[in-house]
Amino acid sequence: MNQLKHYIGVVILVAVLTVATGLGLQSALQNGYILPPAASWQAVPIDWLFGLHFWAIAFLFSLIVGFLLYSVIVFRRKKGETGDGVHFEGNTTIEILWTLIPLATVIYFAYLGAQTLSDIQRVDPDAIRVNVTGRQWSWTFEYPELGIVSEELVLPNNKQALLRMKSQDVIHSFWVPEFRVKQDVLPGDMVRELRVTPKEVGEYKVRCAELCGRDHANMRAPVVVLEQADFDAWVEERLAADPTKSDDPVVRGQAWAIQFGCAACHSFDGTDGIGPSWAGLFGKEETMEDGSTVLVDAEYLIESIRDPGAQIVAGYQNVMPANIGEDLTDDQIADIIAFIESLK
Length: 344
Ligand code: CUA
Prior knowledge:
The protein has eight helices and twelve strands. By secondary structure, the protein is α+β, with helices and mostly antiparallel strands. Strands 3-2-1-5-8 form a five-stranded mixed beta sheet. A five-stranded mixed beta sheet has the order 4-10-9-6-7.
């Protein structure tokens, strides 16, 4: 009878603690203290599973802390008590239970995890395709069906997007916290796929979630989710005013510089960055690491793009993508140089 009293006391304490901790965690989750608002349909099952894990966490926390607190308070040493406690050894029933219950729980969570994974990878044959390229330290988004290359990821709402991703240098990781899903972006020919179906019109940000060098923290790109009609208007606008098809080499050069990620490290306005700013660069005498000087002309710029490590300006390191020269055609490089020349 006395023992039953303790059992009931512990069960009530653990139950109260579980509910209190669980409700606290759920409210933190719902109020955005733990995750930002969910903005994709893939986020729905992920958040649901996340919430369920939080209940499991609340219960395990309460089970341990509840027993501990109850024992510390109720079974504390009474005044004048000097002997050891009652000795007991083993309890087969409890040992079987605390093996089987966690085992069944873990298997159940594994089943739910597999179900969620297949849920968020469901293929929509009408998905809009976007080829994503990551590099130190910028992103580019190509819409092969639309003939658009963009430095921001624009997606129609409520339509699945199939992102096919690769890296030009090291491992990066594509992550939009509001979409929940995340995917490593690998160099070589290892294209990785990610499916996202936005469900909230708004502006977000791609973040790189894999440490990838000096400017990793700034490897971001805007994400814009638009209603289908607004998305169609954006496509029209982009196609009508494609700067890479301009007659002006300066306009084309600026577009290439953004598209190929140059702008991530070389500012156009004189701000110092990872690499020298392009403002006022053309025609300038630059001091090299060995103390010699070089006149910045077309020849030097071509060499610096084709072979970035050849002549480094003092105070900078060669962190340019080594194969950037292979990705750019001679005409594109000429356009970029015309753009640099225009930045007085
Ligand atoms: Cu790319 Cu970190």
